[in-house]
Amino acid sequence: MLTERHRHRRITATPLSIALGLAVAVVGSASAQDASSDTKATELSRIEVTGSNIRRSDVETASPVQVISKQDIENMGARTLLQVLDNLPAARPGQQDSRSLFTGSDGASQANLRGLGAQGTLVLLNGRRLSYYGAPAGFQTQFVNIDAIPAAAIERMEVLTDGASAVYGTDAVAGVINVITKRSYQGAEINLTTDKSSRISSYGEHQGSITAGFGDLDEDRYNVYASVNLYRRDAIPLSDFYDKRPDQYYVNNPNYLPNLRLGTGSKPGEFNPGSYFAFDPVTGRRVQEAAPGCNNVLTSEAAGPRCIWETWMNNEIDAGAKSERNTAYVNAHFLIGDSTEAFAEATYTDIDLTANGGTPRAYGTTTGNPTSWFSRNTGTTVNQFLYPYLGPNNEYNNASPELKALMGGVVGLQYLLQDVGANHFGQRNTDQSYRVVAGMRGDIGDWNWETAFATAGSHSVTYQTTNVNLAGFEKAFGPYSVDPGTGRVIISDHPAYKFGEISEANAALIREAFPTFDIQSWTRLHTLDGKIEGPLFQMPAGEVRAAFGFNASRETFYTPGNPDAANGLITQQGGSWFDGKRNTYALFAETVAPLTEKLELDAALRLDKYPDFSANLAPKIGLKYQMFDQLMLRGTYSTGFRAPSLAESGNGGVFAQLGGYRDEVRCNETNAIANLLLQSQRGGDVDLGKTLLNTDCSRTVARMTQPNPDLKPEKAKITTLGVVYEPTQWLSVSADYWFIYRSNEIVAPDFTRDEDIISSTRSPITESDRANLAALAAMCADPASGVACPGTLPGYSVGNVASVVGQYKNRGKTLIDGFDIDARSRFSLGEWGNLNIGMAATIANRNRSYLDDESGWYYGDLVGYYNNPRLRATLNADWSYKQVTTSVFVNYVGGTKWALQQIDEEDNNPQTCTAGYLPVEQSKCDGAPSWWTANLSVAWRPDAHWNVGFTIKNLFDRLPFYDPNSFLGDSSDYATIFGRGYSLTVGYKF
């Protein structure tokens, strides 16, 4: 962190420090105060840079640090911290709050340097830690929610792209992101921003901020300011997105649009009597019919006519949730005596993210695999639920005599439960987070000291209304009985819920059957730190300086879990339960020594003590060599570590589901059936084949992940080696090689590996399975189908996997390395103003994973494979002319293969022209193409009070390509779905 100390000497400017110095010279200066204040030269003697505790007279250190000023953020068109990180080549796409629903860490955004995940990136606010978000990513990785950082008060960001465990402790393996607020502020200002999309009409981002402060540190001996930031992002419903996916998505999902039933099904809010079905006891064939009174009959299905309804297009889960964030930040500084300063800051953020779940739930008698899930209080027993059948004497069983006769009067039912209306189902996430810091700093002779106490915490709550509560469901449709002949569960003949009407009494029952349940989490972090820094002695080449300090913290994490979910009453929601706390302690030391006039040594050492683990000693050494005025060489070596989080090694566990589970046996068997059906000349067979294709290749199964108290800390070795070259006053170029080797990695079980599965279960072959086989047999027996079927028809040897159990473990190693290149130039155009041009790039060299001693480096190098581009780069040009600044910002991501790694490439390659086992366009058989977007911004400051900005995002209206590996089927990780966007900013300083 760059911080000011003394006010009576000036840093000597050098060409090397021009780019960084211009970005940081405003810290603590009069330029952060009211424009009407007297102009003063802020004189600094020494500054503190992120990644070091020692104050320096040069902003360049042995470690590479990138500074992103507030103006840089505005020029790139970013409105949130997440958007800033998306535009940094060294950062990789992390979790986005709007796309995080049903992930376990719903409603939050992550930082992700070098692609090592949020657990390898340390996020600081003014050089100190923040509390973790309440819900760990994937129930495992604790991380800082970057959405909770006060955006309006940000002065700049410093990104250290080097390991810093020797300075900051755990989490700093891939680097550090230090968000720095204004040190002081006088006056008041208000800023308003709104963003809209040309393609998605419902999209909008709106921000408003007020900042006000008073007191002059030099004259009044104090300064206090506060900033309030209000942010709102509008929700994107399915109605604004369903037809805007890439064309290939609809080719690979031919039933997607027809299944919405737009124009053919009953309208939302209209009564729909539903459909009945049964199975032929001889052939196993499914037979169905529309219930009496149906006005929306679909007749094209092989099983018979069915009553259909339109999908309610207000679903906001996938395309984008609504978010409201309110942040307040207060900062105060007071001078005491001649050499002591007291400081304090407080941050409070309230986040409310909501998404409508769309279509009301349907009552659909289960004929396939039951819903399966684990829960805390039922141990290793798998909970299961099936929607029951209607018995022969049920008052709502109005099926035809012929249909009833097939199963002794028992029939299945499909019926739309729309009594509670359009807005009952969905999800909401709230997060209240805070941090309060109070401390003092001062001088003792030539030494500087600082100490502070910080307390931070978060309270995160996920509210979900999507799953069945078994007790409430039985209240509406029970008591149940069991058909003695088949074991089918039957609802009450006279249930409390009244089929055939839409009423408030029904709505009350549905609210109990599908209740809103909450999952609450609390995190707390209390920290006391102190350090002293100053000169040790004089060497021939200069002064040797050192810093010594300590850190003591108390960390707690508590997720009690929902009581109903813990008892197995909420389907698909066993939830998580964690209860952990620990005290940690650290001592650190650092020194900077000028070995010669040109060679400087920077060494750091940190000792961390976590309970249940031996003390960890993390060293770091750096060298900076000024070969001549225009050329500087630099390099570092350090070790890093990450102690297991309380979620990984504490008490509790994850009782939930695993999406996307691939069972090769069932996948191959079902696809063999589907591929034959797709050859039929009979429409119903083709529709069934489309429905079955790949359905068993990605299933949701019950998953239990157990903590592991025997976990070891992750260890890492980090190296950088770089050069900074300034051949002229107007050009500066830096190039840095970086290397990270991480071992003892803590991973969740990989349920595709048999050795990671402690136990598993399978469901039996279901009635739906037998109906599929019956449909295949009927097709093959009918010459009109035109299909030449084999003598032995494909079938099912096993049922689908129902559950898997695993445990966190230390497994494997990761080796990544590459190059960072940064070039900055500054031109004076005389009366035409000034032109700045910059380029930053990260070139990945290797990304290798060592799973275990048996597999070794089996998967090879991942660079160039999916989501691991070799090149990420940005280019910016800013032209300032009088009161107007025009900026162009280009973000580039290199192309990759579709395959995830060389093993996956055996099935997904240019010859198969597939990705994720799905076809891609012929023009993209070679892989995901390279991608770039450009933003154009114009900022006008007509006087000292007003500023007006206009940005065109995605200037050339580039649209995402089809990405079958992506959840939504598009390349929205780095190609916006919004098309060309427009942003307007207006600000006024009082």
Please describe the structure with a list of short key phrases separated by commas or semicolons:
990 residues; mainly beta; 22-stranded antiparallel barrel; 5-stranded mixed beta sheet; 47 strands; elongated; Outer membrane receptor protein involved in Fe transport; transmembrane beta strand; receptor
Can you offer a commentary on this structure?
Helix 12 packs antiparallel against helix 13 (683-692). The protein has a 22-stranded antiparallel β-barrel. By secondary structure, it is mostly beta strands. The two termini are 29 Å apart. The protein has 14 helices and 47 strands. It is found in: Cell outer membrane. Residues 1-32 form the signal peptide. Belongs to the TonB-dependent receptor family. Pfam families: Plug, TonB_dep_Rec_b-barrel.
- Helical element count? 14
Biggest β-sheet description: 22 strands, antiparallel, barrel
Name the beta content range.
35-45%
The total beta strand count reads 47
| Model regions low in confidence, pLDDT < 50 over at least 5 residues | 1-45
Q: Please tell me what the overall shape is.
A: elongated
What would a concise description of this structure say?
With 990 residues, the protein is mostly beta strands.
